[in-house]
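TASK: fixed-backbone design
INPUT:
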């Protein structure tokens, strides 16, 4: 039997094709002389007679060859054989960045790590006079060790104009990938500088943080992913400025901010106190009525849509704090303390008895999601103390003294929250601590004080101290169920930022879900548990990325939001995540995904998710039903909230209609 001949180019033996584009084909090959695997990039034969394409191909080889950086693909060799142009690069045994967030946003620490590596590569290229002009996830490779490498300098431009640059990039011509192109690059690619790469990097960073592309009216990343701190919002906003002069001056400046992104602030920001945005402007009133404690929750007004943004909204460095930092868990009314002097035991007993009578079957009060609000102004409303008819003046005096003490503690708590709003963290923490340590007060008041003390630690950036406070509160005041549920949620939320503590975070979320289903933090815990499962999938490499069980676990958590809390702020997010899971290569359940997107349309018409557009994409790309895809692109044009998404739907509809017209003409002929 004749030995099969191996195809070779320039002495490199081809193993298999890795990818094919309009200008080149990339092969996996071996270099026998050094016994190593390489990537061989070849210019197709039909372009070999086109000087412009040959020049561009050689420019890419020269551009990369001039760079020697761990986060940029290395070029080993270039040549020509029988009019076949090629160059040889290092082979990256891994995947591109798209695979990292195909199932949802990346963990924050992973995002920042990759972002810094990409930024280091860009800084080096820019310093050496090269602008990439096509930064996108597909051009960023992740090797088997998890390191990022910038690839595909096919349309790169030298910072100093030369004859090749002028011939390859004509004035007034846009070159690049539309979704990642800076506004100035869309108008004229020949004049762009390194700031165009920074804009594209901003789009990539937004995708890593949220799993979605930004659009002109894009919500800040923290509005899509509750784990994202305001520091990352600011980096993304500055990178995505329409006007280049308002972007970062260079990649080194971006890198400096990324280095500080996850570090807790050493002190509150300077300048006057900033009023914090509260959707609906809800204010909690702690009042003392007839010897009993209540928290009055006024009905929330219409909240700001999640997909919207406002330049007048002032963002806080602790935006990730939950909305209920200012909405105290309900304090049950003590209806009858009897005629005995107002001793602590009697009040505690009354609170405990009233708590048992509380109707737990009613739905939790409507609450604004944690990442969109912060501490509002809090006021104290004095109420007349119920007068006792006891003939014993000592009883009345003791009762009055005790109620005055409780009223004073409540005033202190509200004063502490006002200080917290104004970012006077240490003073607020001291007030909360003093109330928490007052053993003459009932447990419910002390538990609230411990909760806010932990929140003040979180607000000023001492995260581990905050976690310790939340967990200590949970252990010491187990009977205060709703307060404990809130504390455990916050502990899990903070632990979820650290890769080595995500399993502990998951346990805290599951504890809230299983043991405190009536808590207004149960739906938040379900959603964050689902995100943790998806982030676990995103971190896996190789065969582990096919872990279907992780997807199933995430799907289950998102589904429980819909089953248990259909009116939750996270319900449409849950449906979206479930649909995305059904679209993954592990499932390919496109009918299920279509059904889930339709539920978003039918049940949550105010949702910012472009469900019609996503359905159209499935029909066009997966099912290959072009006529139905045209129908859904039309619906997207008429009904989607985002203007750019409607425009994009119109372009894709027009393209499909041309294809259908050609098919009809061919059949008619």
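OUTPUT:
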């Amino acid at each position: 039997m004749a030995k099969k001949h191996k195809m070779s180019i320039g002495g490199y033996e081809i193993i298999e094709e890795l990818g094919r584009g309009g200008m080149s084909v990339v092969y996996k090959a071996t270099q026998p002389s050094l016994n190593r695997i390489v990537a061989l990039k070849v210019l197709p034969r039909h372009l070999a007679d086109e000087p412009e394409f040959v020049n561009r191909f050689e420019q890419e080889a020269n551009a990369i060859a001039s760079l020697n950086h761990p986060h940029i693909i290395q070029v080993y060799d270039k040549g020509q054989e029988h009019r076949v142009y090629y160059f040889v690069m290092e082979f990256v045994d891994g995947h591109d960045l798209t695979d990292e967030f195909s199932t949802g946003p990346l963990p924050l620490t992973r995002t920042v790590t990759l972002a810094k590596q990409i930024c280091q590569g860009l800084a080096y290229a820019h310093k050496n006079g090269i602008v990439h002009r096509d930064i996108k996830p597909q051009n960023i490779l992740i090797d088997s060790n998890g390191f990022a490498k910038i690839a595909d300098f096919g349309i790169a431009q030298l910072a100093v104009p030369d004859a090749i640059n002028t011939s390859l990039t004509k004035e007034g011509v846009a070159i690049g990938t539309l979704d990642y192109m800076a506004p100035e690059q869309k108008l004229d690619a020949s004049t762009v500088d390194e700031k165009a790469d920074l804009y594209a990097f901003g789009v990539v960073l937004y995708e890593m943080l949220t799993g979605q592309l930004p659009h002109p009216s894009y919500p800040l990343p923290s509005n899509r992913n509750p784990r994202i701190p305001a520091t990352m919002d600011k980096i993304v906003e500055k990178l995505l400025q329409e006007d280049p002069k308002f972007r970062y001056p260079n990649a080194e400046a971006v890198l400096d901010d990324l280095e500080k992104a996850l570090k807790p602030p050493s002190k509150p920001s300077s300048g006057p106190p900033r009023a914090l945005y509260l959707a609906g402007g809800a204010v909690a009133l702690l009042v003392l009525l007839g010897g009993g404690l209540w928290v009055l929750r006024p009905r929330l007004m219409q909240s700001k849509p999640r997909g919207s943004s406002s330049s007048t909204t002032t963002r806080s460095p602790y935006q990730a704090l939950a909305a209920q930092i200012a909405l105290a868990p309900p304090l049950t009314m003590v209806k009858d303390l009897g005629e005995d002097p107002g001793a602590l035991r009697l009040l505690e007993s009354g609170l405990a008895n009233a708590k048992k009578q509380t109707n737990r079957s009613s739905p939790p009060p409507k609450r604004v999601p944690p990442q969109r609000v912060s501490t509002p102004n809090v006021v104290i409303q004095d109420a007349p103390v119920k007068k006792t008819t006891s003939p014993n003046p000592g009883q009345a005096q003791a009762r009055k003294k005790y109620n005055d003490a409780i009223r004073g503690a409540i005033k202190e708590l509200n004063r502490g929250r006002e200080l917290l709003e104004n970012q006077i963290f240490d003073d607020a923490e001291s007030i909360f601590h003093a109330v928490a340590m007052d053993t003459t007060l009932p447990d419910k008041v002390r538990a609230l004080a411990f909760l806010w003390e932990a929140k003040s630690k979180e607000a000023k950036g001492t995260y581990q101290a905050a976690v310790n406070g939340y967990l200590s509160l949970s252990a010491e005041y187990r009977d205060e169920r709703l307060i404990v549920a809130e504390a455990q949620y916050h502990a899990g939320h903070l632990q979820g930022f650290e890769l080595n503590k995500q399993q502990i975070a998951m346990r805290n979320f599951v504890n809230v879900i299983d043991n405190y289903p009536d808590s207004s933090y149960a739906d938040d815990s379900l959603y964050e548990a689902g995100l943790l499962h998806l982030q676990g999938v995103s971190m896996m490499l190789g065969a582990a990325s096919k872990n279907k069980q992780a997807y199933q676990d995430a799907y289950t958590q998102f589904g429980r939001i819909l089953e248990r809390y259909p009116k939750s702020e996270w319900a449409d997010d849950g449906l979206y995540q479930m649909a995305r899971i059904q679209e993954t290569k592990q499932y390919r359940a496109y009918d299920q995904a279509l059904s889930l997107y339709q539920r978003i349309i039918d049940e949550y018409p105010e949702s910012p998710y472009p469900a019609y557009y996503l359905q159209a994409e499935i029909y066009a790309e997966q099912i290959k039903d072009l006529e139905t895809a045209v129908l859904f692109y039309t619906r997207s044009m008429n009904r989607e909230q985002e203007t750019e998404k409607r425009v994009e739907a119109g372009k894709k509809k027009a393209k499909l209609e041309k294809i259908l017209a050609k098919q009809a003409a061919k059949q008619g002929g």
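COMMENT: The radius of gyration is 30 Å.
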